[in-house]
Amino acid sequence: MFKYAIHSFTLIAILFFSAAASWSHCEIPCGIYDDKMRITMLEEHIATMEKSMGQILDLEKGNNNNQLIRWVMNKEDHAEQFQNIVTQYFMTQRIKPDEKMYHEELALLHQMLIYAMKAKQTVDLENITKLKELVTAFDKLYFAPH
Fold it and tell me: How confident is the model at residue 145 (pLDDT cuts 50, 70, 90)?
């Protein structure tokens, strides 16, 4: 009985940890990349942060602290997901130091991280405007013929 319980626990632990690991893009490298999709995801995270900021600004006028907290958490979660795509996908896997546009791409990615951080810290929509501009600039540079 005890042996069966240990085997069951081990199997559950393996399934749990492998499922958690499958949510992020691999660093094997697997060679399966969809760069355009990642740009679209960045744009969606920006749109969600922008909507969250609008909701926060509206809810600050009222008395619904529960919803206010939920929108703040949502904004911060999408800012973190944005930062994760920038760092774990583009900076560690896609941008190579020996590429021609490395420094320009790296500078744009770094600026995106800074403005995503500012979007987490505030509800200043200028940070959203800047993020949109940076993603557009990165998109043009990254997909330009080299």
Answer: confident
Residues 74-107 as b or e (16 or more Cβ within 10 Å = b): bbeebbebbbebbeebbbeeebeeeeeeeeebee
For residue 20, give every residue at least 6 positions away whose Cβ sits within 8 Å of its Cβ, in sequence order, or none. none
What span, in angstroms and rounded, lies between the C-alpha atoms of 53 and 84?
Answer: 20
- The model carries a pTM of 0.81
As given in the structure block, the two tokens for residue 40 are: 């679209």
Provide the token pair at 21.
């690991």
Give pLDDT tens digits for 36-45: 999 999 999 9
Extract the tokens encoding 7.
């085997």
